Amino acid sequence: MEVARAIESFVRHLTTERRVSPHTVSAYTRDLQALSTFVGEGKLLSDVNVYVLRGFLGKVARETSAPTVARKVAALRTFMRWLEKRHIIRENPAAELASPKMRRPLPARLSPDAAKAVLEAPDESAIAGLRDRAALELLYGSGLRVSELSGLDLDAVDLGTRQVRVFGKGQKERVVPYGRAAEAALAAYLEVRSHFAHRKTGFLEPRAVFVSTRGRRLGPRAIQLFVAKYGALGAGRADLHPHAFRHSCATHLLDGGADLRAIQEILGHSSLSTTQRYTHVSVDHLIRVYDGAHPLARRGGPGSRAPGQSPSDLPANVGVDFKKTVG
């Protein structure tokens, strides 16, 4: 089978059988078409071995960044594994590929005061301001992804229980609570939502919660733009991205004493390690956990800290002489 035909079959599998998101399909298509271009027109799968793949990735590495290389390695592995399972190829040449080592930067976050300032930035005397305030409250209060907020439907909002039903990565459904502030903002917006109907045609998307001034569902890009606008107005952060609210939601829940697994459920992470990466564990939180859990923290003595006392406030002579300890 030709490489190009195999890629077409795989993309069709992603779309019709696995039903992954259009964004994921686009990413796989782009990465695999780059391989097809590299090997040349009419090349067969039997021509593609580990050395060809390494040559392709070497070219990518010279032209792009480590994260891009890592994404292409992942795409190649998934593609070749699928071909192997379908018995289209006998051996998987991508099995020997190694991903580049790289540091994964933590997403940006806001302090509680900065988050409050951004939430209060929209002009609520205008209907667009009411809409934007409600959207910001849900981003921060429920930790929604921008795609989840954009895709939110009216019948997925339970005003009585203050919950929303969203579909995350892999179309996994979850129910997420929202707070009193989001409740008030959402109620105020829904009262004026009908005013977003298209001025000339009267069109208004019947299902979408958040709509544009033309009555259409508000897309992720439009949400990103107004988040950046209010980030600049409220916190001097013109680079603010909706994901910063998601990360801030997780961080502030943890600092408030929420269980990490509960945060995992709210964010819709399949792995707890993903939640841990998104969550800054503050020093204050660590101290509270230690003081409440470790028996030595409650025994008193010269090395004990009074409530609210920082480790830097301890006497200089408190500590352990490790040279004496080990002889």
Descriptive report:
The chain has 14 helices and 3 strands. Helices cover 52% and strands 4% of the residues. It has 3 domains: 94 residues, DNA polymerase, domain 1 (Orthogonal Bundle), CATH 1.10.150; 167 residues, Orthogonal Bundle (hpI Integrase, Chain A); 32 residues, no CATH class. The protein has a 3-stranded antiparallel sheet. By secondary structure, the chain is mainly alpha-helical. Strand 2 and strand 3 form a beta hairpin. Helix 6 packs antiparallel against helix 8.
Short description:
This protein is mostly helical and about 325 residues long. The protein is built from 14 helices and 3 strands.
Give the count of helical stretches.
14
Estimate the strand proportion.
under 5%
Largest beta sheet: what is the strand line-up? 1-2-3
Architecture of the largest domain in CATH? Orthogonal Bundle
Q: What are the segments in which pLDDT stays under 50 over at least 5 consecutive residues?
A: 301-308, 310-327
Order of helices and strands: HHHHHHHEEEHHHHHHH
Would you tell me which CATH topology of the largest domain applies?
hpI Integrase, Chain A
The CATH superfamily label of the largest domain reads Intergrase catalytic core
Helix content: 40-55%
Multimerization status: single chain
Distance between the termini: 70 Å
* Tally of individual domains: 3
Number of strands: 3
Q: Name the structural class.
A: mainly alpha
Shape: globular
CATH class of the largest domain: Mainly Alpha
For the report, how would you describe the main beta sheet? Answer: 3 strands, antiparallel
Rg (CA only): 26 Å
